[in-house]
Amino acid sequence: MLMEYLSHMIKALLKTFGFLFIVFIAWILALSYIIKHAAGLFGIGLFVITSISLIIIYNYFKRNIQFFEKLRPLASLFNQPSISYLNDENTKQTIENFVSKVITKNKLAKPNINSSFLLQEIEDLLLLLSEKHSKISKDVLINDIRTVFHQINYETFKKVFNQELMLQSSENITSQEKLNLYAKTYFHLFGEDTAYDDYMDSLLKEAIPTSFMSIKELRALFTKDQRLARLRDILESDDYPSDDSAEDKYYTISDIDKMKDGTTFEYFMAELLRNMGYKSKVTKRSGDQGADVITYKLGIKSAFQCKISGDKINNSAVQEVAISLKAYQCHKGFVVTNSRLTKGALELAEFNDIEVWEREKLIELIEKYPVSKFINFDIKQKAI
Predict the structure, then answer these.
(1) I need a labelling partner for 203 at 20 to 30 A (CA). Which of 32, 177, 213, 279 fits?
(2) Contacts of 46 (CB under 8 A, 6+ apart)
(3) Cα–Cα distance measured from residue 99 to residue 120, given in angstroms and rounded to the nearest whole number
């Protein structure tokens, strides 16, 4: 990232110096002409050509100041590592392995890394580095870990993003269409999560420098488009609930409790998960191999077992989704319910690394990512 920034900045500076040199030469030639052919008007001539030159220079910088701003790196994310890191190969390799295997686990991690939870690991890492005769202070090490973390995590972010982008991209599109496509892909992957905004701004500066807009600006436009689309649906439909209350427009936990069968709940969950930024698909009604909904997000495929009940959910739901992970080649498993799990089921879920969304979590999600009652849970869904 830093080298790309320096490369762009050097090109921009050379272009600016070249422009200023041309203006200066033009000013000298114009002044020479006045001295030679109109010496009596030297004062007026000097004022005129100097004013014209300054106006040209002002307009040039006015047009290009945004370009310089686009090239500004996110210093808080992409700092230079220490001299110890740059000059000591053992230190460099150890820190990179620590970031890849301990922090990110070779996957995309949240950018807002907090070193407080790594204090013991950092202390241990200092001991390992000292065994290798590497002299580095704790503060410098923490800075290097943060710097390398963002470098590695940003590359992972680009890989994940570009994989998703390839599914939607097309050739021969304008810069504005490309910008819209990048924004659409980002919002599809992350929804309302702003944690990766700085990474996305850096990616947009790399990919579309001439049409750059921050992801914050794009989110405002995107949200506006969503609001307008939703309002358009309301105005054009005769079936949309007329009452203004949220309970009549969106599903609540009471509506879920009243669902007559698990299939409706499965399609509801598929829609809720889409609102959360997942690609989701309800499995076949028969032979579902223990999973009701399969999702895909950020390169991670997940299996969801959806249970609607007035009683506590027992071990079977956890067992079913645990089995489904292999059948569907999923990375993660979830049990979702409008009720709660028994103590034995919770212990089994923890043992099998199955995430559980009980009633309280479900209420939180449907309030944050409301599902419209206007939506028809169509059985025909696109495959992941």
Answers:
(1) 279
(2) 31, 34
(3) 14
CA distance 69 to 73: 9
Structure tokens belonging to residue 115? 């070193």
SS3 annotation, the chain: CHHHHHHHHHHHHHHHHHHHHHHHHHHHHHHHHHHHHCHHHHHHHHHHHHHHHHHHHHHHHHHHHHHHHHHCCCCCCCCCCCHHHHHCHHHHHHHHHHHHHHHCCCCCCCCCCCHHHHHHHHHHHHHHHHHCCCCCCHHHHHHHHHHHHHHHHHHHHHHHHHHHHHCCCCCCCCHHHHHHHHHHHHHHHHCCCCCCHHHHHHHHHHHCHHHCCCHHHHHHHHHHHHHHHHHHHHHHCCCCCCCCCHHHHECCHHHHHCCCCHHHHHHHHHHHHHHCCCEEEECCCCCCCCCCEEEEECCEEEEEEEECCCCCECHHHHHHHHHHHHHCCCCEEEEEECCCECHHHHHHHHHCCEEEECHHHHHHHHHHCCCECCCCCCCCCCCC
Tokens of 234: 């309301």
The pLDDT value recorded for residue 248 is 64
- Terminal Cα-to-Cα distance of the chain (whole angstroms): 33
Q: In this predicted model, what pLDDT tens digit does every residue of 166-207 receive, in sequence order?
A: 766 556 677 778 888 888 888 777 776 788 888 898 888 888
Residue 200 region, left (φ>0) first, then alpha (ψ -120 to 50), else beta? Answer: alpha
More confident residue, 134 or 56: 56
Between 83 and 295, the higher pLDDT residue: 295
Residue 384 has pLDDT above 50, yes or no: no
Amino acid in the structure at residue 188: H
